[in-house]
Every structure is written in C-alpha cells, then in structure tokens.
Amino acid sequence: MSGHSKWSTIKRKKGAEDAKRSKVFSRIVKEIHVAVRVGGPDPDSNPRLRLAVQNAKGANMPKDNVQRAISKAGSDAENYEEVTFEGYAPHGIAVYVECLTDNNNRTVGNIRSIFTRSGGSLGTNGSLSFLFETKGVFTVPKKEDMDPDEFELEIIDAGAEEIEDEDGIFIITTQLDDFGNVQEKLEEMNIEAENAELQRIPNSTNELDKELAIRVIKVIEEFEDNDDVQNVFHNLEITDEIIAAVN
Fold first, then answer.
1. Band of the pLDDT at 180, cuts 50, 70, 90?
2. The domain spanning residue 195 has which CATH number?
3. Is residue 1 pLDDT above 50, yes or no?
4. Residues 20 and 51 in one domain
5. For the stretch 138-155, what's the b/e string if a residue is b when 16 or more beta carbons lie within 10 angstroms of its beta carbon?
6. How far apart are CA 96 and CA 84, in angstroms?
7. What are phi and psi of 196, to 5 degrees?
8. What is the mean pLDDT of residues 18-41?
9. Structural domain span for residue 95
10. How far apart (Å, rounded) are the C-alpha atoms in residues 114 and 119?
11. Residue 87: which H helix or E strand, with range?
12. Shortest CA distance to 27 belongs to which of 200, 148, 204, 197?
C-alpha cells in the first residue's frame, strides 16, 4: 500500500474516535459554508456542495447538522477564506497545509508557530509545488454483494489510476481530470464513497527511522488539530512499522 493510502487509513481510524469526530464535523461545516457561498445552496447544481454533503454522510454527520450548515451559509455564516502554507517539518519532511479561516492574521501566526516550535521552517507559497501532484482520492467501503474484480474493472474504465484494498476499504486514486468521471461512475453504480476529495500526493517520499518519523507525525497531527486547518499533506514515507507505532 502506498504512503498516502497508509496515511489515509491512519486518519480514517483516528477520525472514528469520538474526540476527533467533532473536528471532522467542523471541517465539513466550513467546507459547506464555502461551497454554498461559491455555488449556491442546491447540491444538484453545485458539485462542490454535493461533494461536501456526500462526505458529511460518509462521516455519519446527522442530516439536521448538514441542513443547518447549508441554511446558515446563506445567512449569517462566517466569511471563510481559503489559504495555504508550505514548509518543512523537522528532518526535511515537506508539509503542505490547507486552511479555511475567518481571521488570516491568527491563522498565519498559529501555523508559523507550529513550524518554528517544531524546528521546521515556513516557506513561501509555491516553493513546494513541484513536490506534490493534485489527485482525486476516494475511500469506498466494500459491500457484501460487491464483486471486487468487476468493481475494479469498471472503476478503472472510468479513469481510476490506482486501487488499493485495505481492511475492507477500497482507496481509489485518480488523475485530477478523471476525478469527476470516477465520482459519476460511483453514483451510477449506486455506491457511496465514505470520503472523496482532492489531495496533494507527493511525487516521492522521504523515509526516516521510526523514532524520527513519530516526531514528525506529532508535528503533522499538531497542524491537523488546529481549528483553521482543513488538510495536511506531507512526503513522509509511512511504513508498516510506523503504523503499528502510532495506532
């Protein structure tokens, strides 16, 4: 299993914990607010909102919460701004942080502080763009009546670049241009993704020994725990040994 898929698996397991669930819900609500402001409150005509609602369902977010977020987005929602940060965590691990914030000065200060305190460094926007490629990533639970071989063939025909089978979950990776095609194919097959999003996948990864890697993961988790952070991407090689150590 590739490094980004292993990291997705770790995040999925942690997201199932009660302590993390409220953070997941908060991120989805913010995404709903931005999606409604950009494209309107109708999921049928707003692909970004439709994706956010789908992810809310995959995270078991109550329908009332979703509808409340859509309604609030059209009235008194905070005016969130999308900002990104690029830099290096300790030991040369590249980190790309995506945020939605209603106070840019606060977010800049908090993100810079995490980089500095950890011994890393905040770079300029665009400085790490060559290290990552934006791709679509779908997390799809297996159904009991699903024929895995047939499913994989159909998804590959729709544009899937890579399909990984891990603990009853398919992790599907697509090129950016094929993200919509695969999403439409899943809808056509009546299969709901637990999560679907665009991720920044590293072109290559850096491997550290277990002790150093765990230190870096703690820094990454500190970014993820920040209220303004939506996603964190990195190029640390996630090995089975590391997974065992952090689970």
1. very high
2. 3.30.70.980
3. no
4. yes
5. bbbeeeeeeeeeebeebb
6. 7
7. -145, 125
8. 87
9. 81-130+205-246
10. 9
11. strand 81-89
12. 197
